[in-house]
Amino acid sequence: MVTAAQQTASAPDAARTFPKGFLWGSATASYQIEGAAAEDGRTPSIWDTYARTPGRVRNGDTGDTATDHYHRWREDVALMAELGLGAYRFSLAWPRIQPTGRGPAVQKGLDFYRRLADDLLDKGIQPVATLYHWDLPQELEDAGGWPERATAERFAEYAALAADALGDRVKTWTTLNEPWCSAFLGYGSGVHAPGRTDPVSALRAAHHLNLGHGLAVQALRDRLPADARCSVTLNIHQVRPLTADDADTDAVRRIDALANRVFTGPMLQGAYPEDLLKDTAELTDWSFVHDGDLKRIHQPLDFLGVNYYTPTVVSATDGSGTHTSDGHGRSAHSPWPGADKVAFHQPPGETTAMGWAVDPTGLYDLLRRLAADFPRLPLYITENGAAFDDYADPSGQVNDPARIAYVRGHLAAVHRAIVDGVDVRGYFLWSLLDNFEWAHGYSKRFGAVYVDYPTGTRIPKASARWYSGVVRSGVLPGA
């Protein structure tokens, strides 16, 4: 017998109804939107330092003002309510709460997040807090940063401060956002803060981010109410071979270990994959993994956050290839330690303003894989979206049909996965607002809401109105 849901899923242009209780939201990150870089006790993060270093960020842009969310948060929450969002995923700025990365919290910093959470709750929007979205206090980087074990220990102390202050309001917590970027772009290729370029430091950072995650989950569980939920958000790469050759298949295995299993192994299974250790043996003996670390990292989670934008295509090479088509920014240094004989290729088809291929099948395949590998772990899409060259027309409207098509295609992939039995419980559109897009500065616009940077004016784009209709109805309309 064919169910109604299966009939709907089989018709590409038909409307699709999402399950009752499916959580619809949007997401941001502190350094990308808050601004107020030196207010109320906040001290520099590694991204403040990186952005202020000439040549690091396009046009010399910084997050000093960003979208001024620190002062305009009421306006932004009102926009969320207007769009009918059920949840808002935001990150806490570590140097706003604990400026040196040590010691007591700054109450003015915590008060900002208390007010934000209260207003969200008043408007029926669930606050979803991420402890770390890349803004490490600069003092901790000066002491060695994520390659050092002490940073993981400091992270757990910070998690405890945040839980004590916000646990009565915030019931859903994420430890890390995309630790792959923190480790391998921050310490390997140097295209993200802090801009270091050492492959061993990148691997050490990956381990200590894992350890920080585990210690933070323990700290959260110790302090939060029993109904609170803990998670981590990973940018799982959907890696595909260029050809069916065995060598290209092995290139997929190698990149999958570095991109994905370096985190899912210890976090979700309690061990680093043996092939990862073998592939990187010429670089390190992994002696920075201490007795008991894997047990500390392997903490029970309530769900896994999944960020997806585009697939990754690789092939085997003789070592003279380049990693610059991996979509993560150009550098003379690779973010893929031990993978010198892997080449990256631009996937075919339409691309976004980031140069990333538009391919919803990658999201579907990824969700199916995660469901097979971790069958009892619920999934949330914690980031999905696209940058396009948006502009306000003379009437003040921002029409972005390409973004609507992108989101529609990826929501159709999510719906298809649900119909096929994958436990996906929510979707967070990236991003609520146009914002500081890391090394691209303000040149790339991901937002559902357009921001006129000179004035700060917010203009909901056509995609925001379209997404609001999906959120309110729970139905994805046909194309």
Give your account of this protein's structure.
This protein has 479 residues and is an alpha/beta fold. The protein contains 16 helices and 15 strands. The chain has helices at residues 4-10, 30-33, 46-51, 69-83, 94-97, 107-122, 138-142, 149-166, 179-189, 199-223, 246-269, 274-279, 293-297, 360-373, 401-419, 462-473; strands spanning 16-17, 23-27, 87-91, 126-132, 172-177, 229-234, 239-241, 303-307, 312-316, 342-345, 379-384, 424-430, 449-452, 457-460, 475-476. This is Beta-glucosidase. It holds the Pfam family Glyco_hydro_1. InterPro entries: GH, GH_1_N_CS, Glyco_hydro_1, Glyco_hydro_1_AS, Glyco_hydro_1_beta-glucosidase.
List keywords for this structure.
479 residues; 8-stranded parallel beta barrel; 3-stranded mixed β-sheet; disordered N terminus; glycosidase; beta-galactosidase activity
Radius of gyration: 21 Å
**Large-scale geometry:** globular
Distance between the termini: 27 Å
Overall average pLDDT: 96
Helix content: 25-40%
DSSP strand (E) fraction? 5-15%
Structural class by sheet pairing and helices: alpha/beta
Total DSSP helices: 16
Largest pleated sheet: 8 strands, parallel, barrel
Low-confidence stretches: 1-11
For the biggest β-sheet, the strand order reads 2-3-4-5-6-8-11-12
> How many β-strands, per DSSP?
15
Catalytic activity: Hydrolysis of terminal, non-reducing beta-D-glucosyl residues with release of beta-D-glucose
Protein name: Beta-glucosidase
Organism: Streptomyces prasinus
Family: Belongs to the glycosyl hydrolase 1 family.
